[in-house]
Amino acid sequence: RKEVEQDPGPFNVPEGATVAFNCTYSNSASQSFFWYRQDCRKEPKLLMSVYSSGNEDGRFTAQLNRASQYISLLIRDSKLSDSATYLCVVRGTGRRALTFGSGTRLQVQP
Amino acid sequence: DADVTQTPRNRITKTGKRIMLECSQTKGHDRMYWYRQDPGLGLRLIYYSFDVKDINKGEISDGYSVSRQAQAKFSLSLESAIPNQTALYFCATSDPGDLQPQHFGDGTRLSIL
């Protein structure tokens, strides 16, 4: 089982739609969680950190469910510019670096 | 100017050649990382360094070596390149602390023929 698993997609949604991605992680002792965004063949960029109580940044909402070991990302009112691959990233206890999921591809269509 | 700079951006070379990828940063971060990205596999950690005297292997270090020449510079070498090392390579930096995100360079596209 992979340490971090994501549905690769693609998720094809119309502009204005709400879309949600989930990500599961295998290490129950994982401590830090992030969503990164990666445009085609470019570097990953931090979208948002994920806090235990959940957090929101504009149209983006991240949730953490420790009991079920998953994190989620909700995007409201999708824009064409949201088209990208979204990477789920986890840091475990004692791990000195991050573990990246393979990413979920989102395509927002006009 | 980019905070994390990788050179070269693209490289095509032959099997058996020695290759060095360089990374420099102006962010003042102590921690630096090298990853490779292959389609469908996400980013995998090759080596990381928490300061100039601290070098650690990641999950796929075989066939690679690194050098941390200064706080701002971290280079990755392929001693004898092989075709399955063809990939997109990223350097990243971060501040200490579990909640600190990583900041990535633009990537080096490496092809081994």
- Strand percentage of chain B lies at over 45%
Helix content of chain A: under 10%
Residue stretches of chain B low in confidence (pLDDT < 50, at least 5 long) are none
End-to-end gap of chain A: 37 Å
The backbone outline of chain B, from C-alpha atoms, is globular
Radius of gyration of chain A: 13 Å
The low-confidence parts of chain A are none
Largest sheet of chain A: 6 strands, mixed
Number of separate helices of chain A: 0
Which features would summarize this protein structure in a list?
A: 110 residues; mainly beta; 6-stranded mixed β-sheet; 5-stranded antiparallel β-sheet; 53% strand; globular; B: 113 residues; 7-stranded mixed β-sheet; 4-stranded antiparallel β-sheet; 58% strand
Question: Can you put this structure into words, describing what you see?
Answer:
The complex is a heterodimer of chains A (110) and B (113). Chain A is an all-beta fold. In chain A, 0% of the residues lie in helices and 53% in strands. Chain A is built from no helices and 11 strands. The radius of gyration of chain A is 13 Å and the shape is globular. Chain A starts with a strand and ends with a strand. The mean pLDDT of chain A is 92. Chain B is an all-beta fold and 113 residues long. Chain B has strands at 4-7, 10-13, 19-25, 31-38, 42-51, 54-57, 64-70, 73-78, 87-94, 103-104, 108-112. Chain B is built from no helices and 11 strands. Classes of the chains: A mainly beta (110), B mainly beta (113). Chain A binds chain B through residues 4, 8, 31-32, 34, 41-46, 49, 87, 91, 96-98, 100-103, and chain B through 33, 35, 40-45, 48, 50, 56, 58, 88, 90, 98-99, 101-107, 109.
Write a short abstract of this structure:
The complex is a heterodimer of chains A (110) and B (113). Chain A is an all-beta fold and 110 residues long.
